[in-house]
Amino acid sequence: MPPVERYPELQGISREHHDGLLLCWKIRAGTAKGVAPTRIRRYCRKFLREHLRPHFAIEEDVLFPILGSHHPDVRRAMAEHRRLQRLINGQTDVVIALSLIEEELEAHIRFEERRLFNHIQELATPEQLVEIERAHSSLTKPIKEERPEDVFWE
Ligand SMILES: [Fe+2]
Ligand SMILES: [Fe+2]
Fold it and tell me: How far is the CA of 14 from the centre of ligand 2 (A)?
């Protein structure tokens, strides 16, 4: 089955999934290189503050209401957002936390891209699609260049 084409209004939010998958790759690369886990977690916390939180907020405030808060896929995605934030900011053993973040963030993004976003774009009205695009362009900060001291994966 060919992949479903993403509507233009959702492409900005979809593109951020690429950055999320890149974070998972950075965790794997850093771990394989023997980078201190606390350093990798510090980067994950910064990524959460600057990129994941605003991304989750747009999904929860603008996209998910299109399906409704009781839809099982929406409930699952919301629960995964909470769990990912807990894993990144919480007190779980850092080595275990990193391996769970890497695995669960990737699975979350695949679930949204393969399933949830397809439902949403099928159901969204033209007005809702416009609202998605407007919210994304006004709320999301473009990714700045990495600070050299943050780059642990090269
Ligand atoms: Fe999400
Ligand atoms: Fe997402």
Answer: 7
Q: Is the pTM of this model over 0.85?
A: yes
- Distance from the CA of 69 to the center of ligand 2, in angstroms? 16
pLDDT for the residue numbered 148: 87
Q: Are 46 and 150 a contacting pair, CB within 8 Å?
A: yes
Helix (H, G, I), strand (E, B) or coil at 91: coil
Ligand nearest the Cα of residue 83 is 1
Query: Torsions phi, psi of 145, nearest 5?
Result: -65, 150
Q: How far is the CA of 36 from the centre of ligand 1 (A)?
A: 28
CA of 54 to the centre of ligand 1 (A): 10
Q: What angle do CA 116, 119, 122 make, to 5 degrees?
A: 145
17: tokens are 């999934």
